[in-house]
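Summary for the funding panel

The consortium committed to producing paired sequence-structure records for every protein in the target list. Below we show the first two records in order, beginning with the earlier of the two.
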Amino acid sequence: MEPPHYAVDSRGAPQSQTSLLQRLPVELRLQIYDLLFPTKSVPYHAITHGELRHDASPTSTKILCLNRDTHAEASAYLYARTVFEVRITPSGIVLCGGRYMTYPAYDFGKHGGPTKIFGVEGAWDGLLRNVRRLELRITAWVQGNLFDMVAAYVQYFVSRLLDEGAPLDQLRVSVEWQNGVTNFPISRPTVDMARKLLQPLTLLKGLRDVRFGRVDPLPVGFAYSAGYYSVTEEQQYVELREWLTGEMMART
């Protein structure tokens, strides 16, 4: 007996047909999705095609290809419960699965003018249109050209979320500061640099849940040669996190 087939429309999307899965009660379908989709965050590094994590959890997105009805129902469930990691570095924006949303401008703005952003056509547009829960990890370098590159990528990522109308309601943000200077004294980031880096996030309005990890430098690597930041600076970082949170949770 031949297995059941499903038709595909001209764009490659499976057409809606009643399947055995759709005949099940919705409670059972949700239990199936619960087994297939991860409760842990989907990492930004490379993973096997059709899977969401590297660990032993049996995760898969292949059920999304069954038909339109299943795709709509299952993807809504996936995006409602799953946290997707995004990493921003001087090399670009890395989305889940290790796919780059951009590719690097190797001159890093050395020739003057604004930093150039080269976007990858169609890179994870579906994620940007549907994502509700994001964990944004930013690796920022203190040196001017590299810092400007990362700041430009943050701004670009926010603009893409807005352009695609992402229904984002939960955001986690953290910054890891790097220093490429080998001679002393070592430069260190300032509160103003952190503010410039993260200010584009305030364009994201009406979020339900916003949390910040570290946005100030750890007392390692910067502390002993450049001096750790003062009590006043520490309070400024606290105020910066509070301001960013308030702006993003504000209703428009």
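The next record, for a separate protein in the list, is shown here:
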Amino acid sequence: MAGSTTAERGERQQKSSGPPPTRRFTPPPLRVIIILAVALVLLGAGTVWLLYGSQWLRAEEVSVSGTRVLTPAQVRKAADVPVGAPLISVDTEAIETRLRRRLPRIDSVEVVRSWPHEIGLDVTERTPVLLVQKGRNFIEVDDEGVRFATVSRAPNGVPVLELTLSQPGSRTASLRRFGEDRLVREAVQVAGALPAAVARDTRTVKVLSYDDISLDLGGGRTVAWGSGEKGAAKARTLTALMKATPGARHFDVSVPTAPASSGN
């Protein structure tokens, strides 16, 4: 009788030895568990005390960046940061809300904690694109049509808006249909679409009606712009027209596919 093969002998040995023993989890002693629990409680209590009760992590300084017209002192005063309070408890959202409410010139502000003692205020101010004259003062209007500040001197390079009454019937109809705020937004849209060189040279943006907006430039030049629609196309056309007829005094891009210039 032939003897068993090596494979058969290995199979019998595996069956006789049985499955490998499983390792059982042995919980740590109760004393170790208690010590760990007490350590975690102490660590948590220490962290809370460090953040709220100690004098090490308190709001002691307020830094301001990004201002142009506003002064850091104005921003600090409006922010009203609770100096001396625990840094972790300073309500950054409330500070942002106060700043935008008290200083309408601020478009946005980021309030950040800078450990261990500082609150940082990174301010972005609104930029005027138009001025509305009111008596001897000027109201600044940004690119969203927001009237955010009144100044006694007109900033350089910002055109003045005129709601002109040269065509009473047309203007009255536009005011009745669109309202003054809508007409101002149309003028803002036009000012925002102007090529940079033209924007710097624009003295006045005149609104006769919704679709009759014109520009007075330096040197007595004028531009008939039309409505605020197709601003990008009108800007490109105006740039090309000015290059093609540098001596012209009057430009019409109200229909950008059929521009015209005159008055050499």
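Regarding this second record: The chain is about 40% helix and 25% strand. The chain has two domains: 61-125, 130-262.
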